[in-house]
Design goal:
This protein is α+β, with helices and mostly antiparallel strands. The chain has 14 helices and eight strands. Helix 5 packs antiparallel against helix 7.
Length: about 450
């Protein structure tokens, strides 16, 4: 009776777990198996069912006992097919569509089971042999399935092999007990049933643990992937689009905003005119690694790395862009000192244009290839301002719009010098520009 209660408890617990999470069908089938085993134990020898429910007649007791012949193998096969998802037409036999064999076994089992429950016990008794044949067919198929999964080295298959071995041994002792009660005075089959169920629980717990580990690994990989994406699409860019993750980005997401924009080009000169492109590449990379933290510390971010330069955005305060430009010029001087100390023939200079205006930032491209971009006349204007820097050999030039935004700010390291109005390509009116002459120059 104790074994029956344990199995019933385990069965109900698994079914409740399935009700909570309907994706876990393996718990449903294991729960059904445990409950049917409980009925099987409760209806033999000392009949616990009759003791607990004296009003139940013998016919009902026998019907509950017969359930183990057809419902247990069906549940075990269903559980196997959930643990090892059956998507192919065959698992074992290639000569025909094996899924039809499984469906035939299911229909056979349900039909025999329904008949033993619905029909009178006098007829149900005659179906016992048929249900035992059903049990044998399922057993053969399940064992074949386990063997194939062992050959294919599927995980956890040895759990099933061990549990089925336990059932077979328990069944053998049950036969011995039924034939010779002197040799075996009491049935130990219930013990084997409980061991079988506990092995299945251990298996499902192992599978859940593996799934948990896979989920953790997938989460870590996703985190790393997201961080890798953020090296190409800045986190600050996502914030401007009001997105908390790159996975939420869609084609056409955009935002209208006013801010300062910086356009810079790095000029690398070589005394002997014999410097390789690789040297220039290394110096340019060193320059970018130096100035990127400066931009970030001043509340800006690099939107684009361009050929020989970059474009940076400063959404918080126009003063941030000017401070960054001054600090970059100081960093350029330090890099030149470092190159000279290394006896390098190279020297660098940075030309920076800064403008303030309206722009649209967003994503463009197609389904399989997205890119972030800034679209505005402001971008074209700041590019032209940077080209004026190169033409006039000035390090930092600000537009009139940018100068207006910082005129009331205290910038001791920046002396604003008005330049002559310059006609800029794409502009009908001459552009009024100001040089920012920093203390580092």
């Amino acid at each position: 009776m104790l074994m029956s209660g344990i199995l019933l408890f385990i069965g109900l617990l698994n079914i409740i777990q399935f009700i909570i999470n309907k994706d876990k069908k393996e718990y449903l089938w294991l729960g059904i198996t445990a409950i049917v085993f409980s009925f099987r134990i409760s209806t033999t020898d000392f009949c616990a069912i009759t003791t607990a429910f004296p009003f139940i007649n013998a016919a009902v007791k026998y019907k509950l006992e017969y359930m183990s012949n057809w419902l247990v193998p069906l549940s075990i096969l269903k559980m196997l097919c959930v643990v090892y998802p059956v998507e192919l037409d065959y698992i074992i036999f290639k000569s025909f569509k094996e899924k039809y064999l499984r469906e035939a076994l299911y229909i056979f089992a349900w039909s025999v089971g329904a008949a033993t429950i619905i029909l009178p016990i006098s007829i149900g008794n005659k179906l016992v042999t048929l249900s035992q044949i059903c049990l044998g067919l399922f057993a053969i198929y399940v064992i074949a399935l386990i063997v194939v999964n062992i050959i294919k080295r599927k995980p956890h298959t040895y759990f099933y092999l061990f549990s089925c071995t336990i059932l077979i041994i328990g069944g053998g002792f049950s036969v011995i007990y039924s034939k010779n009660k002197t040799f075996l005075p009491f049935s130990i089959f219930p013990v084997f049933l409980v061991i079988f169920i506990f092995i299945q629980l251990l298996l499902l717990a192992t599978i859940q643990n593996d799934i948990y580990k896979e989920t953790i690994d997938a989460s870590e990989n996703l985190k790393k992937l997201n961080e890798a994406y953020l090296r190409f699409v800045p986190r600050e860019f996502l914030k401007l689009l009001n997105k908390d993750s790159i996975t939420n980005i869609q084609i056409g997401d955009h935002s209208n905003i006013e801010m300062s924009i910086m356009f810079s080009k790095l000029n690398i000169s070589c005394e002997n005119d014999d410097c390789s492109q690789e040297e220039h590449f290394l110096i340019f990379n060193q320059f970018l690694q130096t100035i990127s933290p400066i931009i970030k510390n001043n509340n800006g971010f690099v939107s684009k790395f361009l050929s020989g330069g970059f474009m940076a955005l400063f959404p918080q305060n126009p003063v941030d862009a000017v401070k960054t430009a001054i600090e970059i010029q100081s960093a350029v001087n330090q890099l030149n000192k470092k190159l000279k100390a290394e006896n390098s023939d190279n020297s660098i200079s940075s030309k920076i244009g800064i403008h303030y205006g309206k722009m649209v930032i967003g994503t463009i491209g197609e389904e399989n290839r997205l890119d972030d971009t800034v679209i505005s006349d402001t971008v074209n204007t700041v590019s032209r301002i940077e080209s004026v820097c190169e033409r006039l050999n000035k390090n930092i030039i600000l537009s009139e719009n940018q100068t207006e935004k910082i005129k009331n700010e205290d910038l001791p390291d920046c002396e604003l010098i008005e330049l002559e109005s310059i006609a800029v390509k794409g502009k009908q009116q001459p552009l009024k520009l100001f040089e920012c002459k920093g203390a580092a120059e």
